[in-house]
Design a protein that fits this description.
alpha+beta; 177 residues
Length: 177
């Protein structure tokens, strides 16, 4: 009885994944052209992955949002940069003009995708008087919006450059075969 249920379940899964809405006029007859079209559209998958002991590793530098955030905040000293935790926190920073006011920025990564809701940027200001009594305020509205736009713009550029490299590499590998 349970083997029949398992067979029916597998049958429904395979039949449910069939797509009969394919227009034959839009599908190239040559397999190389089909592969190239699928790559350009971002479709398809590999069972064993596309890296075969090449010695290439995915580090934080392969994440476009992470790279763009670090590049945007390169002028500020970092207090914490944890890729696995998805957070970057700068140390207090002040330019030479205002010694009594400094700024601290924290960026939380909510997604690896390059989209507007993938980042949570907080900006804190610290004003200190002569007696060293300091007041810290959260003024994230304007500056955090500007930082988010700048980071997303850089990340989109990095992503397009990276996507072009991946597509060329994959196409060249497939055409060699």
């Amino acid at each position: 009885m349970s083997s029949k249920i398992l067979i029916l379940f597998i049958l429904f899964v395979f039949l449910g994944s069939c797509n009969s809405n394919t227009d034959a006029r839009k599908v190239p007859p040559n397999w190389k052209d089909r592969v190239q079209k699928n790559i350009e559209e971002g479709r398809g998958f590999r069972l064993m992955g596309d890296k075969k002991n090449t010695g290439e590793f995915d580090f934080a530098s392969s994440n476009e949002l992470w790279r763009a955030s670090l590049d945007t905040l390169e002028f500020m000293p970092l207090a914490l940069a944890n890729y696995s935790g998805g957070i970057i926190v700068t140390d207090w920073y002040s330019d030479s003009d205002s010694n009594n006011e400094s700024v601290k920025i924290s960026i939380r990564f909510l997604s690896n995708e390059v989209r507007s809701d993938a980042l949570a940027v907080k900006v804190f200001y610290k004003n200190c008087s002569v007696q060293q009594t300091c007041k810290i305020t959260d003024r994230s509205s304007v500056l955090s919006t500007e930082l988010t736009k700048k980071i997303l713009t850089k990340a989109a550029v990095y992503e397009s450059e990276n996507q072009g490299k991946k597509n060329k590499k994959y196409i060249n590998e497939r055409l060699k075969k």
